[in-house]
Design brief:
Elements: E1 7-17, H1 22-32, H2 35-41, E2 46-51, E3 57-66, H3 67-79, H4 83-91, H5 93-96, E4 101-107, H6 108-112, E5 124-131, H7 138-147
Antiparallel strand pairs: 1-3, 1-5, 2-3, 4-5
């Protein structure tokens, strides 16, 4: 597997509703992050308390990581995706990319269990992977995903 640098920035964002266990939501986020950098990044998670439509409390969790650590997280996610999700990701790159960034929605419940599955729905962890300037366009993004361990 190539160790080419392809990721500039990675953003993770999710919500915890009043009915959710906040520790489980955090565990779902931490499962995306390789163990060797979890402790370092746990203090970088931004917590924002919000209010839902009916006055219910909602917490927004956001993590922004740059450089080598962003690439490590991306490699962790893509290398552990199941074949079905890898193929779905590749076949839907046009819809998930703006030619320089990739946007993913992962099932939050599965992430809690350590499984990284794509999901179109509300109970998700949103991920934005920004690639370095030399990675532009769908074909270059496909090559970058391969370098990050995505198995077609």
């Amino acid at each position: 597997m190539r160790k080419e640098k392809v990721v500039a920035l990675l953003e993770i964002e999710t919500f915890a509703h009043a009915t959710e266990d906040r520790e489980k939501v955090l565990k779902a986020i931490f499962n995306l992050i390789p163990e060797n950098i979890r402790d370092y990044l746990k203090d970088n998670i931004l917590y924002v308390n919000l209010q839902g439509h009916h006055g219910n409390p909602i917490t927004l969790y956001r993590l922004k990581v740059e450089g080598d650590q962003a690439q490590e997280i991306a490699r962790n996610i893509f290398s552990k995706m199941e074949s079905f999700d890898s193929k779905l990701l590749i076949s839907s790159l046009e819809d998930r990319s703006d030619k320089r960034s990739l946007y993913l929605r992962l099932d939050k419940q599965c992430a809690y269990l350590g499984l990284f599955k794509l999901l179109q729905g509300d109970d998700v962890i949103k991920i934005r992977v920004c690639f370095l300037p030399h990675i532009r366009g769908i074909e270059k993004i496909k090559q970058a995903l391969s370098a990050l361990g995505l198995k077609p």
